[in-house]
């Protein structure tokens, strides 16, 4: 028996790198929006409640054309996101009801699976904080400010991270509380917040466990990702 879990599914981005007038989470792969695939996995899983975060102007559209149309009845709130991803996360975790764990997921990652959610649950139950990712297939170089390779981290220790990123509810609320309170100063100091794990790494003593996801759990970011996504659906016979 699992303890209560909420998911915050992020769909408030503008998708600038996709170069499309329609935000990428609403573009179709085959005949369904990217966001449909992401929400479906959470809807059909052990997750109890889903908070969907969208642009304020898209709330009505999401309610009618995604949540009601596809029967995603676990969506308890559709809440407005903010300028940056981390603002949207903060809005989502504030809206989530009483729960033990919060799964934060990019709505633009349609190939998350129930197995990934199960692995994340097992890990967060043990460590309080985990992030889905995969060992890097490429050698990674850290660049200096002039564009020269400065260091080559040992590849065995390099992971690229995905979502969901999963935390005990009290931990993630504490970490995001500090981030939002000190945001101005942190930005002035040059902090660039690109995922949730780094918020926990920076503001708490809890170590974030890395958990294997899948190389198919891609984020739809640029136009070629839509072609790759179609190929994944073809392969799965969907
Ligand atoms: N202010 C923001 C920015 C991003 N996201 C969400 O966070 C996920 C990952 O972000 P990313 O791929 O960077 O999405 P965009 O910000 O939409 O893309 P871009 O950076 O190309 O503009 C997406 O599901 C996106 O909708 C969000 O909810 N609120
Ligand atoms: C959270 C994330 O999906 C992990 O890879 C990623 O960091 C989101 O960042 P983006 O650069 O805004 O896509």
Automatic annotation (TrEMBL):
This is 2-C-methyl-D-erythritol 4-phosphate cytidylyltransferase. GO terms for biological process: isopentenyl diphosphate biosynthetic process, methylerythritol 4-phosphate pathway. InterPro entries: IspD (IPR001228), IspD/TarI (IPR034683), IspD/TarI_cytidylyltransf_bact (IPR050088), Nucleotide-diphossugar_trans (IPR029044). The record marks 17, 24 as: Transition state stabilizer. GO terms for molecular function: 2-C-methyl-D-erythritol 4-phosphate cytidylyltransferase activity. Pathway: Isoprenoid biosynthesis; isopentenyl diphosphate biosynthesis via DXP pathway; isopentenyl diphosphate from 1-deoxy-D-xylulose 5-phosphate: step 2/6. It catalyses: 2-C-methyl-D-erythritol 4-phosphate + CTP + H(+) = 4-CDP-2-C-methyl-D-erythritol + diphosphate. It comes from Kineothrix alysoides. The record marks 155, 219 as: Positions MEP for the nucleophilic attack. Catalyzes the formation of 4-diphosphocytidyl-2-C-methyl-D-erythritol from CTP and 2-C-methyl-D-erythritol 4-phosphate (MEP). Its EC number is 2.7.7.60. Pfam families: IspD. Belongs to the IspD/TarI cytidylyltransferase family. IspD subfamily. Keywords: Isoprene biosynthesis, Nucleotidyltransferase, Transferase. The gene is ispD.
């Amino acid at each position: 028996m699992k303890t209560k879990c909420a998911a915050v599914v992020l769909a408030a981005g503008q998708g600038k790198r996709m170069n499309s007038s329609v935000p990428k989470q609403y573009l179709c792969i085959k005949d369904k929006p990217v966001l449909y695939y992401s929400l479906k996995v959470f809807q059909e899983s052990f997750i109890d409640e889903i908070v969907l975060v969208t642009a304020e102007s898209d709330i009505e559209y999401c309610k009618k054309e995604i949540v009601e149309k596809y029967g995603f009845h676990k969506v308890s709130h559709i809440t407005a996101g903010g300028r940056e991803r981390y603002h949207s996360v903060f809005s989502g975790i504030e809206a989530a009801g009483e729960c033990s764990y919060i799964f934060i997921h990019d709505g633009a990652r349609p190939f998350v699976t129930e197995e990934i959610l199960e692995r994340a649950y097992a890990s967060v139950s043990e460590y309080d904080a985990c992030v889905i990712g995969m060992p890097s297939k490429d050698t990674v170089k850290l660049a200096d400010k002039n564009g020269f390779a400065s260091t080559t981290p040992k590849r065995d220790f390099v992971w690229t991270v995905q979502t969901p990123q999963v935390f005990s509810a009290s931990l993630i609320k504490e970490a995001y509380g500090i981030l939002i309170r000190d945001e101005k100063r942190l930005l002035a100091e040059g902090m660039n917040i690109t995922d949730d794990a780094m918020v926990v790494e920076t503001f708490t003593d809890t170590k974030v466990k890395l958990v294997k996801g899948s190389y198919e759990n891609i984020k739809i970011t640029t136009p070629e990702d839509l072609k790759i996504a179609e190929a994944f659906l073809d392969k799965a016979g969907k």
